Amino acid sequence: MNADHEDPDYRVAADGSIELTPEGRAFYTAYFGYAGIDIRRIKTYEEFHRAERQAFPFLFDFMAQRLKKRPQTLETRALLAVCRSDWDACDRTLRQLKTREHLSLVSPENVAPQSPA
Question: What does the DSSP assignment read for 64-95?
Answer without folding.
Answer: HHHHHTS---HHHHHHHHHHTT-HHHHHHHHH
